[in-house]
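Query structure, 97 tokens:
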């Protein structure tokens, strides 16, 4: 049981590292936070996941799919002006004390 938890944590850590790296690298080429970038990341993640080393396949696919979903949701929320999801005029300033 504990071994499965450790494996899950390792998998999540790998996926998080991949997501951070691919998001920064791909932003220059496909943008970020748009439906278009989400679609590209979705298909690219599927393709790269198939050719990734055995211990990384799932993490690669998970990272790209999570980033793709985030991009699509962000774009839709921006178009629908839903601030709770990142759309509209969201203040990045800390709340006054």
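Result returned for the query:
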């Amino acid at each position: 049981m504990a071994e499965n938890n450790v494996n899950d944590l390792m998998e999540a850590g790998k996926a998080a590292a991949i997501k951070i790296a691919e998001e920064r690298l791909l932003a220059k080429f496909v943008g970020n936070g748009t439906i278009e970038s989400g679609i590209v990341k979705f298909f690219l993640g599927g393709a790269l996941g198939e050719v990734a080393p055995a211990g990384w396949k799932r993490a690669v696919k998970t990272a790209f799919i999570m980033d793709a979903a985030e991009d699509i949701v962000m774009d839709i929320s921006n178009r629908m002006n839903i601030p709770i999801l990142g759309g509209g005029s969201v203040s990045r300033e800390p709340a006054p004390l």
